[in-house]
Amino acid sequence: MSVTSLGYAFRMTLEGASTRGGASTERMHGPQGWARKYRVRLFVTDLFVLAVVMVGAHAVRFGWDPFTPVAGASSPAYWQVTVAVVILWLLQLGWARSTEPRILGHGPQEFQRVLSASWRTFAWIAIVGFLTQWHISRGYLIFAIPVGTVALLSYRGVWRLWIHSQRERGWLQAQVLVVGPLRTSEQMVRRLRSSRQAGYNVIGVCLPSTSRGELADDVDDVQVVGTIDEAARLAEELDAEYVLLSGTDAMSLREARQLGWQLEGTGIGLIVAPAMVDVAGPRVLMSPVEGLPLLHVEAPEFKGAKALVKGAFDRATAGLILLVGLVPMLLIAFAIRATSPGPALFRQERVGRDHEPFTIYKFRSMYIDAEARKAALLSQNEGNGVHFKMKSDPRVTPIGAFLRRFSLDELPQLINVLKGEMSLVGPRPPLASEVEQWDERVSRRQLVKPGLTGLWQVSGRSDLSWDEAVRLDLYYTENWSLAGDFVIILRTIGAVLFGRGAY
Hints:
Blueprint: H1 3-14, H2 34-62, H3 78-95, H4 109-132, H5 138-168, E1 174-179, H6 182-194, E2 200-207, E3 224-227, H7 231-237, E4 242-245, H8 253-263, E5 269-272, H9 277-280, E6 284-289, E7 292-297, H10 305-324, H11 326-339, E8 345-351, E9 357-363, H12 370-374, H13 398-405, H14 413-418, E10 423-425, H15 432-435, H16 440-443, E11 451-453, H17 455-458, H18 466-479, H19 482-498
Parallel strand pairs: 1-2, 1-4, 2-3, 4-5, 10-11
Antiparallel strand pairs: 6-7, 8-9
């Protein structure tokens, strides 16, 4: 049956339908949308945090006398400065659009905008002080601005964790209509479902008129509501908040532009997902030519000054952690030896950068006959088809299960980092038997050092499919950055504390 003939029937049943993920159909935008309620909460907590910080800065510098004057002619009292700074800071947070719904809950932009607003607040205070010759206490500002910025970022981080928890339950979603060719649309649905924290709920798909009117089995609960030509009208009928163009293979440049025009004035946003950005997002630069946005893709960097800085940071950090954690690691080793026969450390050959083999170190989490018992358990593999994993692996010791849940068994890999064989952040270090099954595409992940943690770990670890794990590793390999490494390390802390995907 064609897409056109199926469209009407599907549209009649879409209202109130839930996805396989159980996502809510509550709208993000509008007077009753969740975004407005959330922004009010952010404003109230912004105001509370800044008021507390500024009053605290006054108290630390001047005590509890609110009428202490600022040095300079016709200068105000510090309580007036405190109120003015709070108002200015709130205005800067608003002008920076730090509560824009599309950036809430995922990506670094919210935090970048908070930092920008804080910097501009400080700049305005400096300009006003210079023009008026008011000598505002440097101790007062040095306490207020940095502490206020850290406080804002911290509580925004807490709010983000709350958003993530709600989105994992299917709430706080934006309703999206996916438009594009069959395969890319299926892939987009899978991506959005696997990234629930991004907050996009697919309410339907529009395909080319020549496509068959159904999706693959794993996403067949998403309804094909019509053809690409009907996308703008269907988006309005279905109350979509975004139209996501998943690929332009089935659309000419004129048709894609026409879709954008049709959505003007409807309040429906247009999201375009170019295929190349999937692997080269941070390296893509846009250059408009006669109104046509050309995407320039820079070559990935695997060596050079940036890599040297990364290596120095890795070794310094690994050395510091080993020094601080020496006693706890000795206690872990003692517990392993005391609860099961065999050595405390497990050694295994892995494949490193440029396919060079090296010996990896881990705390032993299995009984010493684990490898001999593996063959009998292959039929119970719960991994991604390449890696053998079992959520209740009988070869894992009781202390080993605890170590694995919180990734403590990985700590000896800091020795590999110190030796320069691994990095703190990078792709998963593979076995030689796994590498033998790879094609040339997957082998590109060995262009960088394997990591103690990485995108694969903070995005689901053992719960990921093989294709998803490869995609994340390749993305990291070609787009790594020091700032990105820092974000992954912070996300790793959360993944470890909650034991997500660890078994």
